[in-house]
């Protein structure tokens, strides 16, 4: 199992594919918490981010736009891996 810090590093270096399970591990490592689930949509929240972050799987993988939006949140709000 790849550590969340390594996953984030790979994404920042340009990798754009990630399993949905790894995406959720990365979200929790960045301090986001699951707020609620509606169907397949899961809403994550973070005290620094003014809106929820919705995710849903695309089969076993995370959707590419969700990875892009996650990287934008990391940059915009200074999120980091909490170890």
Account of the protein in words:
The protein has 3 helices and 3 strands. It is globular and about 30 Å long. It has one domain: Metal Transport, Frataxin, Chain A (2-Layer Sandwich), CATH 3.30.920.30. By secondary structure, the protein is α+β, with helices and mostly antiparallel strands. The mean pLDDT is 94. 40% of the residues lie in helices and 17% in strands. The protein has a 3-stranded antiparallel β-sheet with strand order 1-2-3, with no helix packed on it. α1 crosses α2.
CATH superfamily: Hypothetical protein
Low-confidence sequence ranges: none
- Average pLDDT value? 94
Number of strands: 3
Separate helix tally? 3
Set down the secondary structure blueprint.
Layout lengths: L3 H9 L7 H10 L3 E6 L2 E5 L7 E3 L8 H14 L6
Antiparallel strand pairs: 1-2, 2-3
Helix pairs in contact: 1-2
